[in-house]
């Protein structure tokens, strides 16, 4: 399988980047996007050249580290799959693949395809936690949670924080990410202690670093965890609840 790659090369955050063309005459359909980059890098290393920098960790679709863009789409052509699970069988012999970092004003480039996604971490720092009384662990049945509620909470907790939703949004919004966290923590008993405070602080941080929601739904289309678009509605719902509660919980 022959592919032509246009790969983003940028030495650092203050330098100008560019696309470099790389011909790959021996790609295999079963390769993932990351394995394709590994293949290219192995050849560069053998030739004494600098390999392309990109982020990865588990390569099992769990950690969300491998965010990048392929032909303008976060992660790749397949819907709801991270880059490490995107296979070349979705492309044809002779195709041109443009591989670049996740594009967003909130994601400054560190090097090549590695970006700084700490803006997402700052949203979580504002309220992505629960308050508990320290001491002996309570019995497992002390806090009752309805099965349907637990399943819904787990569906939203599945967000891996890859940041693809932000890159997919034309406004660079992180409402799907933040909404998923707010829904998850608002449904469980231990997350209710600081619910209003969490909503105010996380949404303030969201609006400081990211753009407004575009309402088009591109975010849900690329989300590897399949977070439903309804999570976006949690932003206004939790904001309104916090405003009318008049309390800090």
Automatic annotation (TrEMBL):
Q: Which Gene3D superfamilies match?
A: 3.10.20.30, Alpha-helical ferredoxin
Q: Which parts of the sequence belong to the 4Fe-4S ferredoxin-type domain?
A: 150-179
Report TM segments.
none
What is one Gene Ontology biological process annotated in the Swiss-Prot or TrEMBL record? Answer: respiratory electron transport chain
Report the domain of life of the source organism.
Answer: Bacteria
What Enzyme Commission number(s) does the record list for this chain?
A: 1.3.5.1
Cofactor dependence is on:
[3Fe-4S] cluster; [4Fe-4S] cluster; [2Fe-2S] cluster
Q: How would you classify this enzyme at the top EC level?
A: oxidoreductase
Query: Which reactions fall under this protein's catalytic activity?
Result: a quinone + succinate = fumarate + a quinol
Under the heading InterPro entries, the entry gives: 2Fe-2S_ferredoxin-like_sf, 2Fe-2S_ferredoxin-type, 2Fe2S_fd_BS, 4Fe4S_Fe-S-bd, 4Fe4S_Fe_S_CS, Beta-grasp_dom_sf, Helical_ferredxn, SDH/FRD_Iron-Sulfur
The UniProt keyword set, sorted, is: 2Fe-2S, 3Fe-4S, 4Fe-4S, Iron, Iron-sulfur, Metal-binding, Oxidoreductase, Tricarboxylic acid cycle
Q: Which GO terms describe its molecular function?
A: 2 iron, 2 sulfur cluster binding; 3 iron, 4 sulfur cluster binding; 4 iron, 4 sulfur cluster binding; electron transfer activity; metal ion binding; succinate dehydrogenase (quinone) activity
Its recorded name reads: Succinate dehydrogenase iron-sulfur subunit
Q: What phylogenetic lineage does the species belong to?
A: Bacteria, Bacillati, Actinomycetota, Actinomycetes, Mycobacteriales
């Amino acid at each position: 399988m022959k592919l032509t790659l246009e790969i983003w090369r940028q030495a650092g955050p203050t330098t100008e980047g560019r696309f470099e063309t790389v011909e790959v005459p021996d790609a295999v359909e079963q390769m993932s996007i990351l394995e394709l980059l590994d293949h290219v890098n192995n050849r560069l290393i053998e030739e004494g050249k600098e390999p392309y920098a990109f982020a990865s960790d588990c390569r099992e679709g769990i950690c969300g580290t491998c965010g990048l863009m392929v032909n303008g789409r976060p992660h790749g052509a397949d819907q709801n799959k991270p880059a490490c699970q995107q296979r070349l069988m979705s492309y044809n012999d002779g195709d041109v693949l443009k591989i670049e970092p996740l594009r967003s004003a909130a994601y400054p480039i560190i090097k090549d395809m590695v970006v700084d996604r700490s803006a997402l971490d700052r949203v979580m720092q504002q309220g992505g936690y629960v308050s508990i009384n320290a001491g002996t662990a309570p019995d497992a049945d002390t806090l009752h949670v309805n099965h349907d509620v637990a399943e819904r909470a787990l569906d939203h907790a599945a967000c891996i924080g890859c940041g693809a939703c932000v890159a997919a949004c034309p406004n660079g919004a992180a409402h799907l990410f933040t909404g998923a966290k707010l829904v998850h923590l608002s449904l469980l008993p231990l997350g209710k202690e600081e619910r209003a405070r969490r909503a105010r602080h996380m949404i303030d941080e969201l609006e400081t670093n990211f753009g407004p929601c575009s309402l088009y739904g591109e975010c849900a289309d690329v989300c590897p965890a399949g977070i439903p678009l309804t999570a976006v509605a949690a932003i206004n719902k939790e904001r309104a609840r916090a405003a009318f509660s008049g309390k800090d919980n």
